[in-house]
């Protein structure tokens, strides 16, 4: 990886995170947690640069940092760009999880579009993000997307979407399941 132009501390944390090849690896997420705790513009700038990285690992790390760093107004354009331009399914999954963490309704068009993706990991990310960004009262288009996802052929996607519907509408998961299965 090329240097990203940050301080030695930020560079070191990013290098540590990139060395852990497991996306859910403890070392990777400990480094990301320290970067989140910094919550500064330097970390945001480094993460934004990573989002334009040559490898999917770099882009995914950049997204994972942006998702909980704050700087929502600055992060959303980067994430929305990736939502339309990225080919790697795991990067798209990370983008969707980041949208969910940022809890900003402006991400809704990107999330709804990715809810139609061919890869179930991406649709799972959309099912996670939707209830977090639909607002209160929930956006009707977001609810419609969750209903579609609740009938997904992938059981994990469908289950997560049903939970999201229950949380968004104040219903019980079993009530939502009955509504979907017996319209």
Describe the structure.
This is HEAT repeat domain-containing protein. Pfam families: HEAT_2. InterPro entries: ARM-like, ARM-type_fold. This protein is an all-alpha fold and 183 residues long. It folds into two domains: 6-84, Leucine-rich Repeat Variant; 103-183, Leucine-rich Repeat Variant, CATH 1.25.10. Helices cover 73% and strands 0% of the residues. It has eleven helices and no strands. Helix 1 packs antiparallel against helix 2, helix 6 packs parallel to helix 8 and helix 8 packs parallel to helix 10 (155-169). The termini are far apart. The model has no long low-confidence stretch (mean pLDDT 91).
Number of helices: 11
Q: Supply Rg.
A: 17 Å
In CATH terms, what is the fold-level topology of the largest domain? Answer: Leucine-rich Repeat Variant
N- and C-termini, Cα separation? 52 Å
Q: Give the CATH level 1 class of the largest domain.
A: Mainly Alpha
Supply the number of structural domains. Answer: 2
Q: State the helicity in percent bands.
A: over 70%
> Averaged pLDDT, please?
91
Pfam families: HEAT_2 (PF13646)
Protein name: HEAT repeat domain-containing protein
């Amino acid at each position: 990886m090329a240097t990203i132009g940050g301080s030695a501390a930020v560079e070191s944390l990013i290098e540590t995170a990139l060395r852990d090849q497991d996306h859910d690896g403890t070392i990777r997420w400990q480094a990301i947690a320290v970067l989140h705790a910094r919550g500064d513009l330097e970390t945001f700038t480094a993460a934004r640069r990573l989002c334009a990285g040559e490898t999917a690992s770099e882009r995914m790390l950049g997204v994972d940092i942006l998702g909980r760093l704050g700087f929502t107004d600055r992060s959303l354009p980067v994430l929305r760009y990736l939502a339309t331009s990225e080919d790697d399914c795991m990067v798209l999954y990370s983008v969707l999880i980041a949208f969910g963490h940022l809890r900003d309704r402006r991400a809704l068009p990107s999330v709804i579009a990715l809810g139609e993706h061919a890869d179930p990991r991406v649709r799972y990310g959309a099912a996670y993000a939707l209830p977090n960004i639909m607002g209160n009262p929930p956006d009707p288009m977001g609810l419609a997307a969750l209903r579609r996802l609740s009938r997904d052929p992938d059981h994990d996607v469908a289950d997560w979407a049903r939970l999201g519907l229950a949380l968004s509408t104040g219903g019980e998961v079993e009530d939502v399941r009955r509504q979907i299965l017996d319209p």
